[in-house]
Hints:
The structure holds two protein chains of two kinds. Chain A is an alpha/beta fold. Helix content of chain A is 33%, strand content 28%. Chain A has helices at 44-52, 73-78, 95-105, 112-121, 137-149, 167-182, 194-200, 218-224, 272-281, 296-307; strands at residues 5-13, 19-28, 33-37, 59-64, 67-68, 80-83, 155-159, 186-191, 203-208, 211-217, 227-234, 250-253, 258-264, 286-293. In chain A, the strands form three sheets. In chain A, strands 6-7-8-3-9-10 form a six-stranded mixed sheet, with helices on both faces. A four-stranded antiparallel sheet of chain A has the order 2-1-4-5. Chain A has a four-stranded antiparallel sheet with strand order 12-13-11-14, with no helix packed on it. Chain A is elongated. Chain B is mostly helical. Classes of the chains: A alpha/beta, B mainly alpha. At the A-B interface, helix 2 and helix 3 of A face helix 1 and helix 4 of B. The complex binds adenosine-5'-diphosphate and magnesium ion. Residues 14, 16, 18, 20, 38, 40-46 of chain A line the site of adenosine-5'-diphosphate (ADP). Residues 14, 16, 18, 20, 38, 40-46 of chain A line the site of adenosine-5'-diphosphate.
Amino acid sequence: MQPILNVSGLSKTYDSGFEALKKVDLAINRGEVFALLGPNGAGKTTLISIICGLVNPSAGSVTVDGNDILSDYRAARSLIGLVPQELTTDAFVTVWQTISFSRGLFGKRKNPDYLEKVLKDLSLWDKKDAQIMTLSGGMKRRVLIAKALAHEPQILFLDEPTAGVDVELRRDMWEVVRKLQQTGVTIILTTHYIEEAEEMADRVGVISRGEIILVDEKAELMRKLGRKELTLHLHDPLDSLPASLNGHDLELAGEGYEIVYHYDTQGERTGITSLLKDLGDAGIRFRDLQTKQSSLEEIFVSLVRGRK
Amino acid sequence: MNLRAIQTIYLFEMDRMRRTVAQSVISPVISTALYFIVFGSAIGSRIQQIDGVDYGAFIVPGLMMMTLLMQSISNAAFGIYFPRFVGTVYEILSAPISAMEIVVGYVGAAATKSLIIGLIILATAHFFVAIEIRHPVWMLAFLVLTCVTFSLLGFIIGIWADNFEKLQLVPLLVVTPLAFLGGSFYSIKMLPEFWQTVTLFNPVVYLISGFRWSFYGQADVGIAVSLSMTFAFLVVCLGVVWWIFKTGYRMKP
Ligand SMILES: Nc1ncnc2c1ncn2[C@@H]1O[C@H](COP(=O)(O)OP(=O)(O)O)[C@@H](O)[C@H]1O
Ligand SMILES: [Mg+2]
């Protein structure tokens, strides 16, 4: 299937001379939840802003469902809803007024029933006549989502949707994303919280310093890059590791009561057998052992660190 | 063309004005009334007619123009500055609308509001002095042309300004003096010859002169010149707006 969003060779150099995006290529599939994961300053907002028409690209092209964002900007933008990173709302108008404004701006005929449904899905219906400035931060974020959905977009961008949001709202937000996905909306969210990507996304793209380092199915990513960690709990604490174990990549932890060994599940051999043998030879006895899959967070940190 | 978007912006802006009706309508009316009391009645009673027109009536077109300039500029400047300031402009920029549609929405609303204020001032003036309007169609044409042109200028200022000070600086430091020196309260023929020449570089002179002609058939400069100068200024403003959107100046990094 043709991707709904196609970014190719996209670069951005700000007037300051800063290169925020470096020849980014990215294709987003119809109906997926895609998480763009990267540390602060990686270029996530810049990428989204170019696609949505807020920032001028320096080079490269973007098409939305086949429509170029510059030459066919009307068709392209009609398909997109954007929830910005910052809580930027009007103050003196009501929730209903602001979402009606959003819908009108996108040239859509009035449809109170649809807007009512959007507000109800976001638990905003009882606030519809409230002035936005009277709402809490979490509620304002919902209003921003409602505004983005007001014109029935095919693609929804959520730029750091849960930054500075409490746990309850975060759960709600994930629920909303799931519901939207069921209705066929493609969702692209940026985050620097790994758990968010882990929880929500079908695919994850990792961006760092303006470059997409990799894009993969979340599960595949975790499997492929997943390193495991073996922790051995010792009977007697060690001051330092004996020289005979130098050949293994070990760490002493837990005040000398634990030895931690990292290994690659995809490798030819994991090295566990020889490690255990060498431990026995060195007379080190252990009470317990446990293995653990490294989280997306650890994968991510090691990826980004590897780049520096 | 996204007519619905233009309408949405226009009505949203008009609604904003309705919410702030006190400061946007009542205050110009009060200040105009004060001008009439001070200049028209107190001082005007000691000034003979100018060009066969009573002084109180003579200042009406100038006073209207002065208020229109200030109102058009500040309405339009604030209208676009505010969304930029709070960040809500992201929505305008990400919507499927052209630059022209954005301008028509914002400038149209600002111009409408100043037009309404202009007419209210005219009605207010009516209570203080006897006014005749010789060329009502031209009067209306000048009114609309001025509202649109200076709302465009205000729009440009609202995009150029990156803080509140700048937003108020231009109306205060440039437009007020130009309006005062543009013959609001006197005929420029009353000035020494040297200053008459200097005054011809003041664009507001042409507005006020043309506008006064539509009232009393009297003008400091020819009506054709007045009209062309106003049009020329409109075209310059349109050019600047076109450049702003083409380059993304202060709107799109
Ligand atoms: N308008 C701008 N001018 C200059 N540099 C900018 C501008 N906007 C963002 N940047 C820089 O570009 C980099 C990427 O920013 P951004 O896209 O906001 O990152 P992210 O959203 O991933 O945190 C940052 O280093 C930021 O300082
Ligand atoms: Mg960001």
